[in-house]
Amino acid sequence: MKFLIIMVLLAGLHTDDALSQSREDLLTKNQQYTGTAPQKDKYKAVYQLDTDNPDIVKKAFRNINNLLKDPRLAGKLEVELVTFSGGTEVMRKDHEYKEQLLELIGKGVRVVQCLNSLEERGYNKDQLFDFIGYTPSGNGELVILGNEGWTIVKP
Q: How high is the pLDDT of residue 17?
């Protein structure tokens, strides 16, 4: 019985060494990580913007621009920004976001507004930037694109 107890204790000491060694290996492996390599020829992301909170709007623009700068995705990316609900305000001519939206479009991002939100807010297309696209329903756009394999991002 004493022999068994000694063996268990010795095994425990070796286990600690093994765990400590494997922890060091894991830390080193983690430090060496540089990102996942893309496996597909095409990646698609739709950003939903349903608020006019300036911090969230800026975050959405920053997130999209950061995605577009990722070298792993160069030439493999399709991106859409869909606004609805409070995000409708971002598309209004009397708001400050014209240049940022034009910049995104210039980089190939499709910028789209929900028509339901326009109606609910009592706006007409003349009040919005003339360079944006439209979809019948922002939520419908997300459902359709999501089911077609697009990644939905909510900043």
A: 57
